[in-house]
Amino acid sequence: MPNIAVVVFSGGQDSTTCLIQAINQFDEVHAITFDYGQRHRQEIEIAKELGQKLGVASHKVLDVTVLNELAISALTRDAIPVSNELMENGLPNTFVPGRNILFLTLAGIYAYQIGAQTVITGVCETDFSGYPDCRDQFIKAMQNALEQGMDRKLTISTPLMWLNKAQTWALADRYQSLELVRDETLTCYNGIKGSGCGTCPACILRSKGLNDYLDNKTSIQAELDNQN
Distance between the two ends of the chain, CA-based, in angstroms? Predict the structure, then answer.
């Protein structure tokens, strides 16, 4: 039986790195991308281009703009500026409540239908924006819920969960894809490809990680080895 994976794929640094790794590890890889009316929806076209370039078995783009109607965030409301400050509840104003609950549920359904054993997502608890739905505890709970609800074994794989951003760049470099991830992905909340706007939280985190990696390649590659 072929080893099949579904990658939750936004076209950003993290999910593209996960997709590249999956293509090297699985017999068949499918990508799923979500249009939720996001501020940086240019990422959808980037995801389509990258999926085609990297040769995924299929790429499904789902309209889930109902999330935009329910979840109020700087990423779902253009009138709310992206801020580097935390809100009163301690979360960034780019947090979209329920986003990963919805995405992983739909990815799990898709995996069920195509016979995939694994759903891969690029969430990370080590070097992240503080979103509660990127935590390992949440992922384990979602996996359990999907297995219980569909009565089928399913693994939600999180290759980046315990990597910092520099180590994520190291992982891309390990697959000879650092330049592709650097130049052709879209992580920026303001929808600018590559190095982005340079001022939003996503760009700052991405840039710092890249600079750290380029300055300390040997030691960070060794750290990556120790993670595996």
Answer: 26
